[in-house]
Every structure is written in C-alpha cells, then in structure tokens.
Amino acid sequence: MSPPTPRLRRALLVLTTALAALLCALAPLPAAADGLADTDPADTARAAGDGPADWTARPAGGGADRDARPYVYLEGTPGTALQDRLAVTNSGRAPLTVRLRGDGRAGAWIGFAADTVTVPARTRAEVPLALTVPPDAVPGDASGEVVADDGDEDIRVPVRVRIGGPTLAALTVEDVEISDGTIRYALVNRGNAMLEPRLAVRADGMFGTLLDRPERPLPLELAPGRRVERTEPWPDAPALDAVTVRLRVTAPGGARDEAEVSATYLPVAPAVGGGLLVLGGLALLGSGAYRRRRARRGDPEPPGAESADDRQPTTETRPLVKAGPLVKAGAES
User: Fold this and answer.
1) Cβ neighbours of residue 307 closer than 8 Å, sequence gap 6 or more
2) Overall pTM > 0.90
3) Are 178 and 261 contacting, i.e. CB atoms less than 8 angstroms apart?
4) What 8-state DSSP symbol labels residue 134?
5) Are 122 and 93 in contact (CB under 8 A)?
6) CA atoms of 30 and 216, how far apart (whole Å)
7) Which residues does residue 251 pair with via DSSP β-bridges, in sequence order?
8) What is the DSSP letter of 326?
9) How far apart are CA 37 and CA 249, in angstroms?
10) What are the φ/ψ torsions at residue 318 (nearest 5 degrees)?
11) pLDDT tens digits, residue range 179-221?
C-alpha cells in the first residue's frame, strides 16, 4: 500500500481535529455537574430572571393549587365580624417576612392577627383575619384586597363581601359623545350590588340604520358607586349624514338605562367652499341694497366713493376768453 499523499494527510488531520472538538463540546464537564447536583431547579430558573416567585399568598384551605379559592368570599349582615385565614407559603431557602394590609372598600374592614409575619424556609403559615362589616353598611356587594408585601414585590388577594339585606341594581350610561370614529360613554353603578353590564349600540341616519350591534356582555365587573369610562369603535362612520346614536345597557337584577347623542357629518372641503360662496353672495346683496337705499334718499356718497355715472367719460365746457393786445415787458406804448 502506497503512503498517503500530503494532501490526503492534511485532510485526515483536519477531520480528526473537527471530530475531537465535537466530542469535547458534547461531553459534560465534571465540575459543572458537581456544582449543579445540589441546586434547586426553581432557584436556577429565578437566577435566569424568568422563574416564579419563591413565595405565594392565597386564601387558606382548598388543598392543591387547582382547588385553591381564587378570592376571599364572606357573607354577613351589618355589624357582624366574619372570620377567614390567609395562607403564606415560603418555598425559598431563607426566612421570609411579609407585611399584611387591606386595600379598597372591603379591605379597610379587615384586621389581621399579626400585621407582620415571618415564615421559615420551606414552610407554610396561615394568618387569621377578621372582617367587621360596619353597622351602617349598605346591603349589597363590597370588594377589596388583602396585600402581602415582602419589600420587593406584593401579592394581592381579592376580597368580596355580600352584605345581607335588600339589594338594588341600578345602572346608568352617561356622557355619550362621538368623535374621530369613536363612541365614548361612561357607566355608573348607582345601586348597592355588583353588576356585570351588557351593551347594545344602534345608529340611525336620514336614510336608515347605519349601525346595529346586538346586546353583548362587557368584560368588567362594576362595583357599587364605581364609574368606568369606555369607548366603542365606529371606523365606518358616514361622511355626509345626520346621525342619532343610541346606547342601551342592562345588568342582572333589572338594571337598565339608555342614552343617545346626535351628530352631523359634513365633508370638510365642500362645506368650507360652500360657506365662502354664501358669504360672498350675502356681501354682494348687502352692498347693492346699501347703494340703492342711499340713492333713494339723495344722500351724498361717502368720501372716496364714486358712482357708476362718475366713472363715465365726460366733456368739460369752459368759458371763452377774448384775447387782448399782447404787451411785451419793457415796451413803451
């Protein structure tokens, strides 16, 4: 067998080097493996900046996360004290200290067994809380939040309270206006019950219906006394028409209201041109009437004004002067 040529030797060397580099890249490093053996996967994810927080706060009870209550729900009459618990879970490796407070209308009625709680590592603590309904509270629904804050971030747990007694569902739609292809309006909960409003929109012009959107639920819950400003897009609004837009809102419990607004659409350029023509015509008519009135009264024309007769060419008549004998200066008679 003949020895390999220099070109073949170089090709074999390059191939061997590439294969060795590939094997080194695929093989795990022992030091790195030893270092990761005792690392918690959650800690690794947090170090990357995209992992979940290492603590949670939620209503106590319910067992697994899938069965956990989404919010604190309590029912009672005015003047009663209602009990519940908040669960704070520390899944980290160091003790966790959180501060607890209430926020919102119902949150202001909450008191905690301890406003500051320290939870050991990998431990879950349940904090009792008491919500006292004010004696003068209006029957209906109230909402708020429990806020748990560790100094870097906070977790908010919704709180909903149903206050016993007669409820009133009342809803109004206000401040309806149209501008730039958008219908703007405001919804106000005038009752004492939580409302889930529905909206229907209709627009009629001179020649028929331009917009007819059937009633549909809006993506919001309106607490008692709350006001929300919303918009309804209308990109295909007419260019030339007189329009009346009607909004109808409803909610469970018999809440209902309607409001309307009128608008006139005119193309900008034709409207401006027509307005200038009308102004020009009015100016000509006014000037002619003014001149005819002055002519009937025999009033002199104002300074600088000349009539049509003044502008006609005329021939002046001058008196004839007889020429006398010429007298030269310094001549003797």
Assistant:
1) 301
2) no
3) yes
4) P
5) yes
6) 62
7) 255
8) -
9) 61
10) -110, 145
11) 888 999 999 999 988 899 999 999 999 999 999 999 999 999 9
